[in-house]
Amino acid sequence: MGHLNIIGAGRLGRTLGRLWQEGGTFQIQSVYNRSPASALAAIEFIGAGQVARSIASMPKANYWLIACTDSEIANVAQQLAQTGLVDDQAIVFHCSGALSSEVLTPLKPASVASAHPVHSFAKPEYSLGTFAGSSVTLEGDNPAVERLANIFTAIDGETLAIDPESKSLYHAGSVIASNYLTTLMDLSLQSFAAAGIERDNALRLLTPIVMQTVENNMALGPEKSLTGPIARGDLETVEAQVESLTAVDDQLAVCYRHLGLACVKLARRGPLSKESAAKLIELLSEPTR
Ligand SMILES: NC(=O)c1ccc[n+]([C@@H]2O[C@H](COP(=O)([O-])OP(=O)(O)OC[C@H]3O[C@@H](n4cnc5c(N)ncnc54)[C@H](OP(=O)(O)O)[C@@H]3O)[C@@H](O)[C@H]2O)c1
């Protein structure tokens, strides 16, 4: 069994740490977070490990996970390199979708890689039960990539290679599907609230349609899943909705109009006529007053 040190055991780090610890893949050895209290909470969640007071005080390990926020990874890699704790047999990896393994260059000759789980770790307790089946994209030095493929497969991740040059666009795709979907839910709840429908009722009302829409998209693709006024070319309904939303909140109306334009483009790949599309584009492009 390998020994893993974690620098930055937040939502992702503590979830993966616990899955590996419970699965017998790794012995979680040492955890360093910005605050010792947070590191203590992480080791309690993982069920193993010791709190480190600094990076320099961590014991040597054959695997190092740097799972702090993206903007801190380069800084942490530099600090860790300066300790001399990482030798040429070690594997060091981060889990950012946006950054490549290049950011870990100061740690060479250790073998370095990035391993991005396409998973939303909003609540570690949930992710323990839902991580299996998530994809994990890998790139970096061969020894690290090969070992990480086994390590993520051990907790039922589906690993695949990613070109480091494509990571920004690939990550934008994940962000749109996950984070923007969440923001759309919030915008939808704001609209329901303005209609006098309480949040709990709105969530109950939305559950079947949101789940159905996700299922439709996965099974049929977006072109065949689009329903509603834009797909039907129902100009009057769209106009009324732009007006109603503008009266409530400018940002709601702006989002409705901008996404509506993308929706028209999608609907044109289906049965929406060129004429209806042109009228909808004119309506949705109008600046709100
Ligand atoms: N969350 C996701 O859904 C998700 C999905 C895929 C990939 N990722 C990637 O996973 C990584 C971690 O994301 P996350 O959502 O788990 O972040 P998070 O919940 O915000 O946790 C970040 C952790 O890093 C620690 N930290 C921050 N700066 C540090 C530093 N300079 N030195 C040591 N520890 C530091 C924080 O310590 P304190 O607790 O003491 O502040 C915190 O425990 C990122 O690279 C992210 O891109 C996240």
What does this structure look like?
With 289 residues, the chain is an alpha/beta fold. It folds into two domains: 161 residues, Rossmann fold (3-Layer(aba) Sandwich); 117 residues, N-(1-d-carboxylethyl)-l-norvaline Dehydrogenase, domain 2 (Orthogonal Bundle), CATH 1.10.1040. Helix content is 55%, strand content 14%. The protein has twelve helices and eight strands. Strands 3-2-1-4-5-6-7-8 form an eight-stranded mixed sheet, sandwiched between helices. β2, α2 and β3 form a beta-alpha-beta unit. α1 packs parallel to α2, α1 crosses α4 and α11 packs antiparallel against α12. The longest helix is centred in the middle third of the chain and has 28 residues. It is elongated. The chain starts with a strand and ends with a helix. Bound molecules: NADP nicotinamide-adenine-dinucleotide phosphate. NADP nicotinamide-adenine-dinucleotide phosphate binds next to α1, α3 and β6.
